[in-house]
Amino acid sequence: METLLQHCQDQGKSIGEVMLDYEVKKSGRSREKVLEMMVERLKKMKEAVDQGSDDPSPAPSGISGGDAKIMGQYRKEDHPFSGPLIFDAMRFAFATSEHNARMGVIVATPTAGSAGVLPGCLFSLYDNAGYSFDSLVMGLMTASAIGFVIANRSFVSGAAGGCQAEVGSAVAMAAAAIVELKGGKPAQAIHAAAISLKSMLGLVCDPVAGLVEVPCIKRNAIGTAIAFSAADIAMAGVESRIPCDEVIATMYDIGRSMPRTLRETSLGGLAVTPTGKKVKERLFQQNKDEARRKTESQPCRESNVD
């Protein structure tokens, strides 16, 4: 992050602008083409938010789905304590993650399991704070720069480093994007990334039945609130005492220290609670029954052997 910040200071540009320049140079595409590609990704995010928000149906597993709709109803009938901005961010994170669980199209930011955080934050800003769609594109560039650094210095996979690597990275990406969208300096955006990521260190990856649904979806929602909190803290002028590069390195060390049972194997944590085990057994039996029915429904083939 120190190198990224130096580039920003030397060129007098934001993190998003520096990342855009880098992508143009590395890909060989024009600036217009790169922005066009980012617009397409942002549109896919919006589709996931919109479709997920209105869909009350459960995911094929039956263990998630419909909570975004419930959140929307509460939003209409009451005044959430967290306020419209943060509440809608959580709601949109639910919507995106549930859409993913239903096999809908999402944008991995940085992974499918953490794909709700960034669109949740961006489109809440779009709906509640008057940010234009074009401005969100640059927010997406800022987020991609943070994710790029984390992926190259640590990991973004739950199987490699726990949920801190997935949702933690997504929260850091979102926090930095929020700061730059609000007009904050690159240094403040990097402090926001560090502050948010510090809050996620040590978070294990323990998906029930091996599915990216429980507890993943709710962690995405809570992650949006952490991103906005870290952004406000950094915008106020509070700095992370531990540099962002060191926070990322610490995440890597913690991930390497995590036992295999807590890195997306579903052999520990919430996955092995009594309820978690029951869900797994039910789903495995359901899959076996379905496979048997398919086999039985297939017509027998006559042998050609005399």
From TrEMBL:
<protein>
    <recommendedName>
        <fullName>L-serine dehydratase</fullName>
        <ecNumber>4.3.1.17</ecNumber>
    </recommendedName>
</protein>
<dbReference type="InterPro" id="IPR004642">
    <property type="entry name" value="Ser_deHydtase_asu"/>
</dbReference>
<dbReference type="GO" id="GO:0051539">
    <property type="term" value="F:4 iron, 4 sulfur cluster binding"/>
</dbReference>
<keyword id="KW-0479">Metal-binding</keyword>
<keyword id="KW-0408">Iron</keyword>
<feature type="compositionally biased region" description="Polar residues">
    <location>
        <begin position="297"/>
        <end position="306"/>
    </location>
</feature>
<dbReference type="GO" id="GO:0006094">
    <property type="term" value="P:gluconeogenesis"/>
</dbReference>
<comment type="similarity">
    <text>Belongs to the iron-sulfur dependent L-serine dehydratase family.</text>
</comment>
<feature type="region of interest" description="Disordered">
    <location>
        <begin position="46"/>
        <end position="69"/>
    </location>
</feature>
<keyword id="KW-0456">Lyase</keyword>
<dbReference type="GO" id="GO:0046872">
    <property type="term" value="F:metal ion binding"/>
</dbReference>
<feature type="domain" description="Serine dehydratase-like alpha subunit">
    <location>
        <begin position="11"/>
        <end position="271"/>
    </location>
</feature>
<feature type="compositionally biased region" description="Basic and acidic residues">
    <location>
        <begin position="285"/>
        <end position="296"/>
    </location>
</feature>
<dbReference type="InterPro" id="IPR005130">
    <property type="entry name" value="Ser_deHydtase-like_asu"/>
</dbReference>
<comment type="pathway">
    <text>Carbohydrate biosynthesis; gluconeogenesis.</text>
</comment>
<keyword id="KW-0312">Gluconeogenesis</keyword>
<keyword id="KW-0411">Iron-sulfur</keyword>
<keyword id="KW-0004">4Fe-4S</keyword>
<dbReference type="GO" id="GO:0003941">
    <property type="term" value="F:L-serine ammonia-lyase activity"/>
</dbReference>
<feature type="region of interest" description="Disordered">
    <location>
        <begin position="285"/>
        <end position="306"/>
    </location>
</feature>
<dbReference type="Pfam" id="PF03313">
    <property type="entry name" value="SDH_alpha"/>
</dbReference>
<dbReference type="InterPro" id="IPR051318">
    <property type="entry name" value="Fe-S_L-Ser"/>
</dbReference>
